Write the structure tokens for this entry.
Amino acid sequence: QHNPHFFPNRTGIVHLFEWKFKDIARECETYLSPNGFGGVQVSPINENAIVFKRPWFERYQPISYRIITRSGDENDFRNMVTKCNTVGVRVYVDIVVNHMAAGNGQVNGTGGGTAFIPDKSYPNVPYNETHFHETCAINDYNNAVEVRNCELVGLPDLDQSLEYVRARIVNFMNKLIDFGVAGFRMDAAKHMWPNDLSVIYNRLNNLSNYFATGSRPFIYQEVIDLGGEAVKKTEYISLGAVTEFKFSLEISRAFRGHNELKWLKSWGVKWGLLPSKYSLVFVDNHDNQRNGAGGSEILTYKFPKMYVMAVAFMLAHPYGTPRIMSSFFFDFIDQGPPANVSTEEIISPKILSNGTCTNGWVCEHRWTEIVGMIGFRNRVRGEAIANWWDNDNNAIAFCRGNKGFVVFNNEPDDLQLTFNTCLSRGNYCDVISGRKSGNICTGQQISVNEKGKSVIRIKAQSVVAVHSGAKI
Ligand code: LM2
Ligand code: CA
């Protein structure tokens, strides 16, 4: 359950946060597939509580396991999964089964269902109060029992040790597997017992016929472990991959200038990160881009220069399975996706002629630098880091075998030096400032001599990356 099942020569999971299924299907066909992305993570797909002013977080408050949200219904979802698989892009679903919706009194769901919270009654599953833990609040993160059996921010806490609850969860997940999904993000895994999750995962079907026979679903579990708490990320790695929040924090700190880049030479387990195959990595996610683990250190689209460097490093370095955040613009943390003020329907991203998004969507995955580095990662797959160079401070460079070369300059001034690129002689397009288009580079062109050397100028707070797939 550690294999993401990417098609060959594809990598990266794009979290198309709050996108509608119809738009995701089109994005798979027109952009993600042609540009080498591995898969998409969709926001929770099952019926959620309608919360006043439609904040993004309402999708973490389930009402039932019927597939109907502002992203679309079951039909839309199935069509999307088929279309994405057909063009070689996998789909991963965010699964919220630690808890159900909170509220006072009756709560209405996105599919017309209701719940009555004082009775912990969710008739469209159905769940009643016997399926939940006793009400208590999580205050003490040094107490694993409290973390697992009490309520996260007041959300009624399901008891996954019960056979009935396990069956409801397994049935929901197996239905999605049979539709063709490749795996799951397990929301709030830290708040569930590893043993209960193990029983649930073991009952999951093998993947559908879009996959090799006998394939197991990819599982990545959200466990925030920055140290100093009772629950450890290592408790979950035998079950599946784990979201590595320490990666997000440390990479952000480094490219924010709070830790010298030269230390990244030992990036990986020496930093206290999980072994690579267990590690789902990201610069920011939908939570910590607004608040939460890592807080103000976390880099996001709001700091584009530093953010691009951090994402480029993540994709240039072989460690982990990378996930790219694709956001909507927000001014306050609870702000929901762009929506029509009267109908509250989500407004689709509109794609401009230069390939970027508008209508309130950031579409980081469409930034030239980020998509360029997806191409880089695919090209250098399996090649080791070689020829590490640094200036003993905030400029670093390395090769990936003899297929790729990348240099990062997080100094206040431009840098110009002769580098050993490990590449064969010829002209290459920098995939950060532009791309290869026919026989020309739309950005910087890098010429490498017969000794693999090249004089390269890197602007302050930027990156230059070249690979054998962008040779002209
Ligand atoms: C997660 N991982 O463990 C998600 O990644 C995170 O986004 C979810 O929190 C959380 N677990 C629960 O699924 C978000 C959000 C919270 C929000 C909850 C529930 O960060 O702020 O809580 O979703 O929608 C909100 C209110 C909170 C209130 C709660 C219950 O912010 O003040 O607590 O609803 O009504 C009384
Ligand atoms: Ca729990």
Observations:
- The pocket of LM2 (ligand 1) is lined by residues 57-58, 60-61, 96, 102, 152-155, 187-188, 222, 287 (CB under 6 Å).
- The chain has a mean pLDDT of 97.
- Helices lie at 21-32, 74-86, 144-149, 163-179, 194-202, 245-258, 304-316, 368-379.
- The two ends are 40 Å apart (CA to CA).
